[in-house]
Structures
1.
Amino acid sequence: MHPVLFHIGSFPVGTYGVILAIAFFAGVGLARRQGRMDGLAPASLSDLCIALLIAAVIGAKLLMVLVGLFTPAGQEGAMSFADIFTMGTLRAGGAIHGGIIAAAIVYFWQTRKGHGLPMRTTGDALVPGVALGQAIGRLGCFSAGCCYGTETHASWAATFTDPNAALFSGTPLGIPLHPVQLYTMAGNLIVMALLLMARKRRGFEGQILALYFIFEGIQRAITETWRGDLDRGTWFHLSWLSTGRLTAIGFAALGVILLAMWRKRSETAAA
């Protein structure tokens, strides 16, 4: 709706970036609060969150570029190596699941190093904040016009008119679209609520972390139904298997594996 929030001289300040900053601090705040319940040092959690943020930004850009490079030339979303360094690519937020994958790798690596942050307990504290950050971040997507939906004539449709949305994100202008960014925001808030409720009845360390991957995978697989930005690519010649849905399935599968593995370890330790 408003890709550019304001200008500093001739430099445009994007609404997306400002909202992402708000999302980050909100997520960190919730993570610190959850961490205190398990005796985790707030300062250590904040340091970890900064490392995860850097990894997420790089990972999101990298997955977006990889999908573009492997998209056949001539198809929507195809990229060449020269396109990587264009202003449009640099401005784009990237593919969110690429950011989550990269952040997860850094998370497992960092927590294995110690720093007073046990891997599973720390994950339980972090993921409600991750879901909150994702939810707020989708407001940034809605403002920028990226991650747009398919055409609809429902009464709640969103119609984008700002030329910057088309320039930066390829958003169709003047066409009523599903506000899928807001659907995903609602999905992320539901994930956060489910995680916070599950945390009160946590049976073993790591349970909330595993549930996050399951719930996030399910909600993304569902909301992918209304995504209209098909330039993210499809797989195995299946029109329904977009990059977002493929990673969503992987997330859910990983969550099921972690849940079963850590539950078994907990039961074995208690025996």
2.
Amino acid sequence: MRILVVEDETKLANAVRRALQLQKYAVDIAYDGQSGLDLAVGESFDLIILDVMLPGIDGMEICRRIRREGIKTPVLMLTAKGRISDKITGLDTGADDYMVKPFSFEELFARIRALFRRSVQSPDPLLQVKDLTLDPVSFKVERSGKSIKLSSREFSILEYLIRRKNTVVTRDQILSHVWDYDSDVLPGTVEVHIKHLRDKLDTSFTVPLIKTIRGFGYEITG
């Protein structure tokens, strides 16, 4: 899962990024409204955490604009304003949820999980391809009933491939979705992680799941 955090309080933004990264999310940060809007419109995210009071363009206006662009990414608003009228305004602009500062990370994680569950078409968030199951909420992966332990990057790559099953995904698409925007990623990083995934997912099983489409990228079919 890739999350955009738009927050001008540098200390809070960086703390949220560290906390989310420990939860296996890829996180990009924008410290002002214009940068946040540019990222929200120009990149693909699974969730946007959006502060209301921002320099340049405020969070309410960012939310309005991305909805006008047809972007349906779930938006979680953050604000120091706790009045009911403020919450109603935020939700009416197109936000999906609303949190008042200060907040606990435990509550933030719970709200994120709820938004992810809501954004899935089926009420069951479990993803499945053949005999492989992946739970994006509990971060559990099983194949033929056997539990498989993955690193955060491996999990994110696998989830990205499953959500786009029967579609060829390029290396650049994986890089942009799984790694932070400002990450210093070496050439061959994706290939190394794909190899590790294959070692864990395919070595002990008859049918391989991850296919290399030479010259294009990778695909999971099912």
